[in-house]
């Protein structure tokens, strides 16, 4: 990701009105902004609540907000008031995309519902991110990442086999919902080239959480058994879990017999691959505990990082289990350009790499309402 690169991104010329707060929506619109879209983040009078979700803070704004709100203009409007609604409509007149995550029914209450927007702005792509959608048994109810993880089965398969159901240690549902929203917007933009018409995009945390249940849902559909927690171990593959070593933990992701033979060779135990208990993946799954005990013994004299490098070079998927600080300091992290730094601003960069139109850092996360005068002044003038 290039810093202050003035070359137009892939979405240059695309105008996005961003009414979202917290994570799923801002993560979506930051993706669009990183790739050249002009994103106008419009906050309510109370501001995006994540500005206060700290410490740590930088100039009074929490890191949580700073991490997902770069490459956006900072505006503020009270959409419950006629003046705010009029200014929003003035901005929508030449906008390509509207992204919002209000509770279903809120915009309708203000006269800004989907049908009225589509009639007034037929080319507008309106993306709504919500918890459950507007209708159905749970329609209109608020949704939150951790609750979606709990309700949609993610917690049921996450955690130690003999422990409690556990939340994934990051807001994975919010973030994949943001990714789905960005994907939906790009699909709709492409379709508009043919039809000349916008459309309504209905993206929910509920649907996105369910979509993450592979292979557990596939296993249930075919086998009928309710998936259970297996800790770090994979339900379908062995060895596919973390192991202790002399120095740190090592994760092995051995997906086929050839990789298992290579692993046995690197560990100086070719008999391991010849053992009838471990000849095939099905055998290894059946005898998972015996395999784990043997591998733990063989790995006890190795250091995780060094052995992982050796295994990768031999074609065996493996990795040391790193913390966030260790990851940021990893040479390959820097090589891939995954850390952005400009002055006091540090953040994760875009993982989406395009050869001719790369992502760029054009605007730092905005202060609340910092661009009101510049943007609204033109509309009022």
UniProtKB/TrEMBL annotation:
Pfam families listed in its UniProt record: CoA_transf_3
Keyword line: Transferase
InterPro entries: CoA-transferase_III_domain, CoA-Trfase_fam_III, CoA-Trfase_III_dom3_sf, CoA-Trfase_III_dom_1_sf
Recorded GO MF terms: CoA-transferase activity
Superkingdom to which the source organism belongs: Bacteria
Gene3D superfamilies per record: Crotonobetainyl-coa:carnitine coa-transferase, domain 1, formyl-coa transferase, domain 3
PANTHER family the record matches: SUCCINATE--HYDROXYMETHYLGLUTARATE COA-TRANSFERASE
Name this polypeptide is given: Carnitine dehydratase
Taxonomic lineage of the native organism: Bacteria, Pseudomonadati, Pseudomonadota, Betaproteobacteria, Burkholderiales
């Amino acid at each position: 990701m290039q810093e202050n690169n003035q070359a137009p991104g892939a979405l240059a010329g695309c105008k996005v009105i961003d009414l979202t707060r917290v994570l799923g929506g801002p993560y979506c619109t930051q993706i669009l902004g990183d790739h050249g879209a002009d994103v106008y983040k419009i906050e309510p009078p109370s501001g995006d609540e994540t500005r206060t979700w700290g410490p740590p803070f930088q100039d009074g704004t929490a890191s949580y907000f700073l991490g997902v709100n770069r490459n956006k203009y900072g505006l503020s409007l009270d959409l419950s008031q006629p003046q705010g609604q009029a200014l929003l409509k003035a901005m929508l007149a030449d906008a390509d995309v509207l992204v919002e995550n209000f509770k279903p029914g809120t915009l309708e209450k203000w006269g800004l519902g989907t049908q009225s927007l589509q009639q007034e702005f037929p080319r507008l792509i309106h993306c709504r991110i919500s918890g459950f959608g507007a209708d159905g048994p749970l329609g209109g109810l608020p949704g939150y990442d951790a609750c979606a993880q709990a309700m949609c089965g993610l917690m049921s398969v996450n955690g130690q086999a003999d422990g409690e159901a556990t939340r994934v240690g990051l807001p994975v549902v919010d973030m994949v919902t943001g990714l789905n929203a960005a994907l939906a917007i790009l699909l709709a933009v492409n379709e508009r080239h043919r039809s000349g018409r916008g459309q309504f995009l209905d993206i929910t945390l509920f649907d996105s959480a369910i979509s993450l249940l592979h292979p557990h849902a596939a296993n249930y559909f075919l086998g009928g058994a309710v998936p259970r927690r297996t800790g770090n171990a994979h339900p379908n593959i062995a060895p596919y879990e973390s192991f202790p070593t002399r120095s740190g933990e090592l994760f092995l992701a051995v997906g086929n017999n050839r990789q298992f033979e290579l692993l046995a060779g690197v560990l100086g135990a070719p008999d391991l691959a010849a053992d009838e208990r471990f000849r095939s993946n099905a055998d290894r799954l059946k005898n998972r505990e015996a395999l784990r005990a043997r591998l733990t013994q063989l790995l006890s004299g190795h250091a995780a990082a060094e052995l992982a490098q050796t295994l990768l070079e031999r074609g065996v998927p493996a990795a040391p289990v790193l913390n966030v600080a260790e990851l940021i300091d990893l040479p390959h992290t820097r090589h891939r350009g995954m850390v952005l730094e400009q002055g006091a601003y540090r953040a994760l960069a875009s993982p989406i790499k395009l050869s001719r139109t790369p992502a760029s850092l054009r605007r730092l996360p905005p202060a609340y309402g910092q661009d009101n005068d510049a943007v609204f002044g033109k509309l009022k003038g």
